C-alpha cells in the first residue's frame, strides 16, 4: 500500500471504503435488532457498541479523505484488531466478568482492560485532541497514587490492576452514558442521517427563509431558525456550522450584516440546537439514563428555557438590524412557503410522528426513534422529489454508525473518569468541597458549579463535558434542594454553551473561519448573543416553574416575566443609543425579571422603566417634531 495512491487508481482504497460503508450499515442494523428484536445483555451491547465504533474508525483511518492510503496503515489495522479482540472477550466472558472485575480479576482481565483503555485513548486523541485522554490519564494516576495525597483528596489507594479491572466494567468505561449511546442516540443519529439524505437541510433552510426572509434582518433570523432545526437533529454544533453555515453565513453577509456578527449568529443558532426539544442533540438522552426518567420529561422541561434562549438571539439580531438599517430580502429572491411545503414538507411528518409517539402515545424513546426512522424510509421510498434508492438507504445507515463514532469514544473515555470518581469517592468529596466553600449558599454553589461546568467543557465535546460535570458538580446542587432534573439541566446548559464560550469555543471558531472573521472575536460576539443561556439556568435552579413544574397560571406568569427580562437583556447588550449606565441598569433588570417571583419582578420592572427614560424622552421629542 503506497501513501500516494489515488482514489481512482487504487483498488485497495475503493475496497476499504466499500467495506466501511457496508460494515457501518450492518453495525447500525445490529444495534436496531439488539434493542428491538433480539435483546442482548446490556454489557454485551455496550461492548459491541464501542468495539464496532473502533473498527469503523480505525479501518476508516487507513483510507484517508484525500483518496490516499495512510502511511502507517498497519497501526490503525492493529488498533482495529485490538478493538475487536476486546469486544469478543466481553461477549464470551461477560457472565464471569460480572463477578470478577473490581474484586478478583484474572491477569487476562487486566490485560484486556489495558488494551481497551489504550485503544480508547488513541481513538479519542485522533478524534478530539489530547484534552480528554490527558484528563482520563490524570484520573487513573489519581486512583493509583492518590493514597499518598493528604487531606480531603487522599484515599486508601488502589493498585493499577484493581483500577483497570474496575474501569473495564459497567461501572466505568461501559457505563450508563455508553448505554444511552448504544441504545437510543444511535437511533436518532440514524434518523437524522435518513432525513439528511432525503434533503431535510434544504427544507429547513427554505422554510426559514420563506417565513422570515422578508422581515427586518430576515437573513439572520432565517439562519437562526434553520440552524436550530438542523442542530436539533444533528446534535453537534460544529457539524451544524459546517453544514448549514456554508449557506447561511454568506447569506447574512450579503444581507448587510458584518462578517464577525454573521459568524457569531450561526455559532449561537447551531449551539442552541442541542437545547431545542423535541430532539435535544445527544447528551439529553444520556441525561435520561443518568436520572432514570423518560426522555420526554426532559424534552418537556426544556421547552421554556429553549424559547427564552432563542428569543434573546432573535431580539439581538433585530436590534443589530435596526442599528445597521438592514431590511428584509425582496420576495423574488426568496423561496415560496407553499411550494417548499409541497415539495419537501413531507419530511416534517417523521418529526411529527416522533413527537406524537413520545408525547401522546408515550412510547419508549427507542420505539419512538424506530418509528421515526421507518416513517422517513417509507416516505422516502414513495417520494418523487427525493426518492430513497437502495444506495441512499445504505449510505444513511452507514452515516448513522459513522456519526456515532465520536460519541462512543467520548462517552467510553468519560466513563474512565466517572469510574475513578466512583472508585475513590472523589465525586462526593468534590460536592462536599463545593458546599463547604459556598457555605451552603445556593447562589455561590450555583456560581461555582457553573464555573466548573464551563471549565470542564473547554476543549471537550458536550457529552463528556456534561458527564463529568454531572458526576462532580450536580450532587452539590441536589444536596441544597435543587430538583434532580433542574440540577442536571443546569450543568447541561453550561456544557452546551462551552462551544461558544471563549477561550475554546469550537463552534464560534468554525463559524469565524467560514465568515473570514477573527475566530476569537467571533467567540466573544457569540458569547454575548448567547448570554441568556448563562442566566436562565440560575432562574430554573431557583424556581423550577420554568421547567413546567407548577400550575398553568404560575408557568404562564413565569414565561411572561422572563420574556420581559429577555427583552431587557437584549436591550442592554445590543440596542443602539443606550449609554453604559443604562445598559448596566437594563442588565440588572433583566436578571431580576428572568428569575421568577414577585420579589424580583417589581424591582426588575422598575429598573426596566428607569433604563428606558432617556430613550422614551427622545422618542417623544422626535414624535412631536414630526407632528
UniProtKB/TrEMBL annotation:
Key words, A-Z: Membrane, Transmembrane, Transmembrane helix
Membrane-crossing segments per the record: 19-38, 44-63, 72-92, 98-120, 127-145, 184-209, 229-253, 298-317, 344-361, 368-384, 404-430, 442-460, 524-542, 548-569, 581-598
Domain (TRAP C4-dicarboxylate transport system permease DctM subunit) ranges: 115-550
InterPro entries linked: DctM, TRAP_DctM-Dct_fused
UniProt superkingdom: Bacteria
UniProt-recorded name of the protein: TRAP-type uncharacterized transport system
The organism of origin for this protein: Desulfocucumis palustris
Amino acid at each position: 500500500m503506497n501513501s500516494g495512491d489515488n482514489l481512482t487508481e487504487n483498488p485497495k482504497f475503493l475496497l476499504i471504503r466499500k467495506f466501511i460503508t457496508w460494515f457501518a450499515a450492518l453495525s447500525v442494523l445490529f444495534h436496531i435488532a439488539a434493542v428491538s428484536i433480539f435483546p442482548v445483555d446490556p454489557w454485551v451491547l455496550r461492548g459491541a457498541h464501542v468495539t464496532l465504533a473502533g473498527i469503523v474508525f480505525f479501518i476508516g483511518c487507513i483510507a484517508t479523505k484525500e483518496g490516499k492510503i495512510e502511511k502507517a496503515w498497519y497501526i490503525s489495522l492493529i488498533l482495529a484488531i485490538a478493538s475487536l479482540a476486546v469486544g469478543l472477550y466481553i461477549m464470551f466472558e461477560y457472565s464471569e466478568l460480572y463477578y470478577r472485575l473490581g474484586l478478583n480479576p484474572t491477569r487476562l482481565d487486566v490485560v484486556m482492560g489495558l488494551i481497551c483503555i489504550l485503544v480508547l485513548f488513541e481513538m479519542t486523541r485522533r478524534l478530539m485532541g489530547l484534552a480528554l485522554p490527558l484528563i482520563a490519564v490524570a484520573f487513573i494516576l489519581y486512583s493509583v497514587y492518590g493514597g499518598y495525597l493528604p487531606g480531603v483528596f487522599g484515599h486508601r489507594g488502589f493498585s493499577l490492576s484493581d483500577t483497570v479491572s474496575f474501569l473495564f466494567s459497567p461501572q466505568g468505561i461501559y457505563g450508563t452514558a455508553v448505554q444511552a449511546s448504544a441504545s437510543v442516540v444511535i437511533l436518532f443519529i440514524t434518523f437524522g442521517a435518513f432525513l439528511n439524505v432525503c434533503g431535510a437541510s434544504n427544507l429547513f433552510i427554505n422554510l426559514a427563509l420563506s417565513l422570515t426572509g422578508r422581515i427586518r434582518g430576515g437573513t439572520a433570523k432565517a439562519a437562526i431558525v434553520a440552524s436550530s432545526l438542523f442542530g436539533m437533529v444533528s446534535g453537534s454544533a460544529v457539524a451544524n456550522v459546517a453544514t448549514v453555515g456554508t449557506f447561511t453565513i454568506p447569506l447574512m453577509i450579503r444581507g448587510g450584516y458584518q462578517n464577525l456578527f454573521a459568524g457569531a449568529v450561526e455559532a449561537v443558532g447551531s449551539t442552541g440546537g442541542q437545547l431545542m426539544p423535541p430532539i435535544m442533540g445527544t447528551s439529553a438522552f444520556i441525561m435520561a439514563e443518568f436520572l432514570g426518567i423518560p426522555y420526554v420529561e426532559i424534552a418537556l422541561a426544556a421547552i421554556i428555557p429553549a424559547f427564552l434562549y432563542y428569543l434573546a438571539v432573535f431580539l439581538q439580531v433585530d436590534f443589530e438590524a435596526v442599528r445597521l438599517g438592514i431590511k428584509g430580502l425582496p420576495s423574488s429572491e426568496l423561496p415560496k412557503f407553499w411550494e417548499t411545503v409541497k415539495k419537501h414538507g413531507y419530511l416534517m411528518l417523521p418529526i411529527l410522528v416522533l413527537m406524537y409517539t413520545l408525547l401522546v402515545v408515550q412510547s419508549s424513546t427507542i420505539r419512538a426513534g424506530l418509528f421515526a426512522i421507518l416513517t422517513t424510509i417509507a416516505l422516502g421510498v414513495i417520494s418523487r422529489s427525493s426518492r430513497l434508492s437502495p444506495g441512499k438507504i445504505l449510505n444513511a445507515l452507514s452515516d448513522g454508525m459513522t456519526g456515532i463514532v465520536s460519541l462512543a469514544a467520548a462517552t467510553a473515555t468519560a466513563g474512565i473518569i466517572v469510574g475513578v470518581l466512583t472508585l475513590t469517592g472523589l465525586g462526593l468529596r468534590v460536592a462536599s468541597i463545593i458546599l463547604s466553600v459556598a457555605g451552603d449558599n445556593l447562589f455561590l454553589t450555583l456560581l461555582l458549579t457553573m464555573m466548573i461546568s464551563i471549565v470542564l467543557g473547554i476543549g471537550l465535546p458536550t457529552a463528556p463535558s456534561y458527564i463529568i460535570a454531572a458526576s462532580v458538580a450536580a450532587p452539590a446542587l441536589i444536596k441544597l434542594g435543587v430538583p434532580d432534573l433542574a440540577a442536571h439541566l443546569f450543568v447541561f446548559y453550561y456544557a452546551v454553551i462551552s462551544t461558544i464560550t471563549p477561550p475554546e469555543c469550537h463552534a464560534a471558531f468554525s463559524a469565524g473561519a467560514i465568515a473570514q472573521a477573527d475566530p476569537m472575536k467571533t467567540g466573544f460576539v457569540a458569547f454575548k448573543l448567547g448570554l441568556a443561556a448563562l442566566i436562565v439556568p440560575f432562574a430554573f435552579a431557583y424556581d423550577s416553574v420554568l421547567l413546567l413544574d407548577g400550575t398553568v397560571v404560575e408557568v404562564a406568569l413565569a414565561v411572561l416575566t422572563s420574556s420581559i427580562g429577555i427583552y431587557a437583556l437584549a436591550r442592554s447588550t445590543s440596542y443602539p443609543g443606550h449609554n453604559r449606565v443604562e445598559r448596566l441598569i437594563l442588565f440588572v433588570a433583566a436578571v431580576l425579571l428572568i428569575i421568577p417571583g414577585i420579589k424580583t419582578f417589581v424591582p426588575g420592572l422598575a429598573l426596566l422603566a428607569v433604563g428606558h427614560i432617556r430613550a422614551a424622552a427622545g422618542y417623544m421629542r422626535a414624535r412631536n417634531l414630526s407632528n
